[in-house]
Amino acid sequence: MEKNVAVYLCQGCDIGRSLDIEGLRKVATDEYSIATCQEHPCLCGAEGRELIRQDVLGGVNAPVVAACSPRFMADAFTFDGARTERVNLREHVVWSHEPNDEDTQALAEDYLRMAIVRAQKADLPEPLDQEVERTILVVGGGVTGMTSALDAAQAGHDVVLVEKAPELGGWMARFTRHIPHAPPYRDPAPSDIADRIARIQAHDRISVHTGTQIERISGQPGQFAVSLRTNGTSKEIRVGAIVQATGWKPYDASRLGHLGYGRCPNVVTNVQMEEMLASGRLVRPGDGKPVRRIAFIQCAGSRDKDHLPYCSAVCCRVTIKQALTARELDPALEAYVLYKDIRTPGQYEDFYRRAQEDPGIFFTKAEVTGVEEVGDHDLRVAADDTLLGKHIGVEADLVVLATGMVPAAADGEAIRRYTDAKAVVAKGEAGAQLETAKATVEELAHLEGSAILNLEYRQGPDLPSLRYDFPDSHFICFPYETRRTGIYAAGCVRSPLDSQLAREDGSGAALKAIQAIECAANGTAMHPRWGDMSYPDFFLQRCTQCKRCTEECPFGTLNEDPKGTPQPNPIRCRRCGICMGACPERIISFKDYSVDMISSMIKAVEIPDEFEEKPRLLGLLCENDAYPALDTAGLRRIRHSANIRFIPVRCLGSVNVVWIADALSRGYDGVLLVGCKSGADYQCHFIRGSELMETRSTNIREKLKQLALEEERVRLEQLAIADFERLPEIINEFAAQIEEIGMNPFKGF
Ligand SMILES: Cc1cc2nc3c(=O)[nH]c(=O)nc-3n(C[C@H](O)[C@H](O)[C@H](O)COP(=O)(O)OP(=O)(O)OC[C@H]3O[C@@H](n4cnc5c(N)ncnc54)[C@H](O)[C@@H]3O)c2cc1C
Ligand code: SF4
Ligand code: SF4
Questions:
Q1: Ligand 1, from 163, 172, 227, 501: best to mutate by most atoms within 8 Å of Cβ?
Q2: Mean pLDDT over residues 374-384, rounded?
Q3: Choice among 414-428, 620-634, 716-730 with the minimum mean pLDDT
Q4: pLDDT single digits (tens) 648-677
Q5: Is the pLDDT of residue 473 over 80?
Q6: Buried-exposed string 229-246: b where 16+ CB fall within 10 A, e elsewhere
Q7: Residue 520 class from Cβ within 10 Å (0-12 exposed, 13-18 middle, 19+ buried)?
C-alpha cells in the first residue's frame, strides 16, 4: 500500500506549553519530508478530528497523531481507510518529565521519529475472509454442559451436545436432595435436573448424542471438523466453537487408608453416602445394620499437600445436606462433623446455622489423626480437638469421608509426551532416546485412553493444564479461556464449583463460544486482542524447519507437515507475535507489526555521541500491563529518566533478539524489557511470553559476555498493571546503573 503520511501535533493537555512544537514540526517536515503537518489546540475535539478526517478523505492514509496515549480516545482517532499511528506525548512525555527541558524535547522528537517510521512501514490489516459454521459443540451433559447448550440454543445457535454416559445430567442427576440455592437457604432442596433434561430434549436446536465420545477434532474456530463415536459408529460434523464441560471425578479414596477407607467396610465417601441417601435406607455396608451415629470427616484428602492441595468448595455444604437428610430419614440418628474449617460462604451461612440448630448434629473443629475399627465393624475416630486443645475419640457406626473433586480432564501436553514416547518405544531403535522414552511411558501410563477432545493439534490432543489437571485458564481475569482458541472450559472441569456456579459457568462459556464464532466470522482476533485484524504471515520459502514457532506458540496454532514446516491456522491465532519473536530467520510478520518495523523504529532514535555523555536506553514494554502502568504513572505525574525510549510490544515473547542486537550495535547503552509475571501464578495475557523471554535473555546474556559487554546492559523485569509506582523506580534504577557502567563501547561504530 502506497503510504501518505501526515502529522498532527496536539497542543492540549500541557503538550503545547511544555514542548517546542516548532521543533517537532521540523522533525516531520525537514527530516522526513512530510508534506502535511498540522497543529491544533485540542485534536480530540470535534474540530481537531474533522481536520484529520478531511485530510483522510483527501488521500492521507497514515495519519500520525501526536497527542495522548493510544489507550485513550481510540475511537476518536480511527478513520475509515486509514491506519492511525499514535505518539504518546502526554502520559509518556510531558506528564512524566520536566517541561521545556532539552531532554524532554529530545524524547518527544524521538517518539515522533519512531511513529513516522512505523506509519511508513505498517499496512492497514484486512480481515480474514472465511466461511464459518455457527453450530456449537458441547462436550459433557452435566448441569454445566446442559446450561451451555440451552443458553447457546436460546441465543439462536444450533448445538450438538455430546455425553459419554447413557443419560444426561452428570453427578447432580444421581443426587436426590440438593444444597438449597434460593432463599431461605435452610433445607435441602429437591432435584430439578429432570426439568432441565426435558427442556434440552424438547429444544429443536439441540441435538443430543448420549453414549457418545469425541473421536477426533481438527481445524480451527469457525471450521472445526469433529468425528463423534457412538456404539462403534462414527459420524462427522462441523462446528464453530466448543465448550468442554466434562465435569469431575471423585478423589481416589483408596489413597486415604489412614482414614480407614479400604480397611474398614463402614468407612465410605460422600459420593457413596449420596447413593445410600438416595436409596432411602441408611444401613452399614459392612454388615447391613441400621446406622445410628455418623462421623463426617471434612477435607478428607483436601487442602492437604500430599493429596489435593486445593479446597473443593462444596464438601462442607454437602456434609450439612447429608447430615440433615439423614436426620430426616431417622430423627434418632446423630451426626458428628469433624472439620478443619467450615466454608459456607454468603447466604449458605444460613444453611450451616440450620444444621447448628439441629440438636442431633454436632460440629467440632478437629485434626483427625486416625480411624480404627473397635470390634464388630464399629468405628472410632481419633482427633485433636483444636478448639478445646484436647485429644478426643468419636464413636460411630459409619464414617463418611468428605472427599474432593478432581477435574475429568488430562493435560494434553502430557498425553502428547506419552504418545510420542510410546511411538519411540514401538520403533525399538536402541540408544539413549529409547531409555528415556521407556521411562516416560512408565511414568505416564495412567494417561492411556484419557484424551477427551482428541485434537489433531501438534501440541497434543487435549487442553493443556496449569496445575492439578485443570485446563490452563487465567482464572481471575479471563475465566473459560483455555490455551486452545475457540475451545472453552466450564464447570467442574475448570474449577471445583457447586451446581449453581457451574450453571453460571456454563452460561459464560456459551457466550465465549458465541463471541469466538462472531470473531471468526468477522475475521478478527479473539481474546485478548479483540478486533485485531492482523495475523502472522509466514514467508515459508526461507523456513529452515527449526520448529521454534510450532513449539513456542502458546495456543497450539501451528501444525507441522512431515518435514517440520509450520502449517498456519490463522483463526486459532491470538496474534501475540510470540512466533515472530521466536523465528531465527525473521520470516514471520504482521501487516502492522514486524521485525523490520521495530528494528527501523529502534534505528530512528537519535543517539547522542560518546562526548555528550548522555546515555540512551531502549525500553521494550509489554502493552498489556507494563504500558498501561507507565500511563498511570504519567497520569499521576510520577517522573522517570528522560534517557529511555519505549516501544510497546504485543507481548514480551514477541521480542526478537535481533532488536536487542540492533540496539546495542546502534549505540544504545542498555535495554530494559518489561513484561508480565511468569510462573505458576503467571499474569501474561499470552501465557508464556515472559517465561520465553527469560529463556531468550539467558542466551542474550551469554552473547553479551562473548562481546565483552556487561550483561547488566540488558535487564528483564516483570510487573503487574498495578505496579505503576514501581515502574518509574525500575527505570531510574536502570538508568543509574547504566551511567555507572559507562557508555556502550560500540557507540559510533
Ligand atoms: C458428594 C457431592 C455432592 C454434591 N452435591 C451437590 C448439591 O447438592 N448441590 C450442588 O449444587 N452441588 C453439589 N455438588 C457439586 C456438583 O456435583 C457439581 O457442581 C456439578 O456436578 C457440576 O456439574 P458439571 O456439569 O460441571 O460436571 P458433572 O456433573 O461431572 O457432569 C459432567 C458430564 O460430562 C460427561 N463426560 C465426562 N467425560 C466425557 C467425555 N469424554 N465425553 C463426553 N461426556 C463426558 C460426564 O459423563 C458427565 O455427565 C456435589 C458434589 C459432591 C462431591
Ligand atoms: S501470533 Fe501467537 S498465537 Fe499466532 S501463531 Fe504466532 S505464536 Fe501462535
Ligand atoms: S521459527 Fe521460522 S524458521 Fe523456524 S520453523 Fe518457524 S517459520 Fe520456520
A1: 172
A2: 93
A3: 414-428
A4: 999 999 999 999 999 999 999 999 999 999
A5: no
A6: beeeeeeebbbbbbbbbb
A7: buried
Instruction: Determine which residue's CA is closest to atom 8 belonging to ligand 2.
Output: 553
Cell numbers at residue 105, please? 524535547
Average pLDDT, the chain: 95
DSSP, residue by residue, 555-574: T---EE-TT--EE--GGG--
Q: Which of 559, 575, 649, 684 to mutate to test the pocket of ligand 2 (most atoms within 8 A of CB)?
A: 575
Lowest model confidence (mean pLDDT) among 144-148, 409-413, 566-570, 723-727: 409-413
Q: Tell me the pLDDT tens digit for each residue of 23-59.
A: 999 999 999 999 999 999 999 999 999 999 999 999 9
How many angstroms separate the CA atoms of 749 and 740, rounded? 22
Task: Dump strand ranges (E) for 504-560.
Answer: 537-538, 559-560
CB 338 within 8 A of CB 362: no
pLDDT beyond 70 at 749: no
Whether 565 and 543 have beta carbons less than 8 Å apart is answered as yes
Amino acid identity, residue 64? V
For residues 715 and 737, give the distance between their C-alpha atoms in angstroms, rounded to a whole number: 11
Q: Using the mean position of ligand 3's atoms as its centre, give its distance from the Cα of residue 256 in Å.
A: 49
Candidate from 246, 297, 320 with most ligand 1 atoms within 8 A of CB, to mutate: 246
Cis geometry, peptide bond prior to residue 608 (ω within 30 degrees of 0): no
Categorize the per-residue pLDDT at 479 as very low, low, confident or very high, splitting at 50, 70 and 90. Answer: confident
Distance CA 471, CA 504 (A): 18
CA distances from 152 to 155, 344, 660 (A): 5, 31, 47
pLDDT band for position 387 (cuts 50, 70, 90): confident
| pTM strictly above 0.90 | yes
What would the 3-class secondary structure string for 168-190 be? CCHHHHHCCEECCCCCCCCCCEE
State the distance from the centre of ligand 2 to the C-alpha of 536, rounded, in angstroms.
Answer: 7
How many Å lie between the centroid of ligand 1 and the Cα of residue 471? 16
pLDDT of residue 46: 96
pLDDT value for 1: 75
CB neighbours of 158 closer than 8 A, spacing ≥ 6? 134, 135, 136, 205, 206, 207
Q: How far is the CA of 535 from the centre of ligand 3 (A)?
A: 16
Written as nine digits, the cell of 700 is 542474550
Q: In this predicted structure, what is the pLDDT of residue 475?
A: 66
- Rounded to whole angstroms, the Cα distance separating 387 from 365 reads 6
Q: What crossing angle do the helices spanning 595-604 and 657-666 adopt, rounded to 10°?
A: 20
Closest CA to 666 of 608, 735, 579: 608
Q: Is residue 610 predicted with pLDDT exceeding 80?
A: no
Query: Which pairs count as long-range contacts for 681-685, CB under 8 Å and 24+ apart, including other chains?
Result: 683/474, 683/477, 683/625, 683/720, 684/624, 684/651, 684/652, 684/653, 685/474, 685/528, 685/576, 685/624, 685/625, 685/651
Say whether pLDDT at 86 is over 80.
yes
The cell numbers describing 99, all together, are 517541561
